[in-house]
Specification:
mainly alpha, Farnesyl Diphosphate Synthase, two-stranded antiparallel sheet, about 0% strand
């Protein structure tokens, strides 16, 4: 199955919906800032997930399109703010919003995307009790994302030797996986799925999100900047406590020179390209990147087990292919 081609095809309706919600605004500078990331495209995994899950549980996929668009607007709001906090200068091959405009405008643009998302959410055509459930689900998801982002930032100030892999797993669940969960759970709710199906789709998406983030951490080290559209090495400069870094520090002896090389670059804003390359090589040599790959694939295998609640269909096959794609992609 050509997952990328199917994603692109399925994302067309979502793309049209997203941009239609961002056409109106009196302040031209703010409107351009708000449109900057959504107009750059992207994989649209989350909104496509909402639509496909709705179909997979027996509902009409088009009913989930506004919800999927709202989820994507929330995702873009978090990216705008993340880039300010992480001082990332590029996103999707374009200058970050705070670079192209300025930091105050970026913060306001993120807030505006967040507000518009809930406006769009009100257009989902479901019974009132389902609307309330979707609103609560989405709002609580954003709360958890905020907690995850705060933990990610806090971790940068905690000595990496004091953090456990379970701390990282909790953080990425909140920061990344919960929005995948929200998309899948919401799609199942909109389609009128059973509680068993709703729970299974949420759990599937949790595994998808975890595997996606772990693989993202690998791409941040080994990816091609022209392909990923993100500055390679910034995670090390920013001192990100990724699964890769935590595994390395737990397994490298105190007198291992690779440990010193890694710690010299980790959190060093002035680290040279040579220092970043040396730290990345140390992570490769000690097996931590391979460990992360294996962990991401384990999440994918676990996620596919939750699809057993679904009847055989093209949508079920697509969901299985998507989770494999998430832990093997190049971007």
């Amino acid at each position: 199955m050509d997952v990328i081609a199917q994603l692109e095809e399925r994302a067309k309706r979502t793309n049209e919906a997203i941009m239609s919600y961002l056409e109106e605004g009196e302040n031209q500078k703010l409107l351009l800032a708000v449109q900057h990331y959504p107009s750059a495209g992207g994989k649209r995994l989350r909104p496509v997930l909402a639509e496909v899950v709705a179909q997979a549980v027996g509902g009409a996929g088009e009913k989930a399109v506004p919800f999927g668009a709202a989820i994507e607007l929330i995702h873009n709001f978090t990216l705008v703010h993340d880039d300010v906090m992480d001082n990332d200068s590029m996103r999707r091959g374009r200058p970050s919003v705070h670079v192209l405009f300025d930091e105050p405008t970026a913060i306001i643009a993120g807030d505006a995307l967040f507000a518009r998302a809930f406006e769009v959410l009100s257009e989902v055509d479901v019974p009132p009790h389902a609307t309330r459930r979707l609103l609560k689900l989405t709002a609580h998801t954003v709360w958890l994302i905020a907690e995850g982002q705060q933990e990610d930032m806090d971790f940068e100030r905690i000595p990496p030797t004091e953090l456990a892999i379970s701390d990282y797993e909790r953080m990425i669940w909140k920061k990344t996986a919960v929005l995948f969960e929200c998309a899948a759970e919401g799609g199942a709710i909109i389609a009128g799925g059973t509680e068993e199906q709703i729970d299974a789709m949420r759990d599937y998406a949790r595994s998808l999100g975890a595997g996606f983030q772990i693989h993202d951490d690998i791409l941040a080290l080994l990816g091609d900047e022209k392909t990923t559209g993100k500055p390679v090495g910034n995670d090390i400069r920013n001192g990100k406590r990724t699964l890769i870094v935590l595994h390395a520090l737990q397994n490298l002896a105190m007198d291992d020179p690779r440990r010193a090389i890694l710690l010299e670059a980790l959190g060093n804003k002035d680290a040279t390209l040579e220092q970043i390359k040396a730290a990345t090589q140390a992570l490769q040599d000690c097996g931590s990147i391979d460990y992360a790959r294996e962990t991401a694939r384990r999440h994918a295998d676990q996620g596919k087990k939750h699809l057993e609640v679904l009847k055989p269909s093209a949508e079920k096959d697509f969901l299985a292919a998507v989770i494999d794609y998430a832990v093997n992609r190049k971007i």
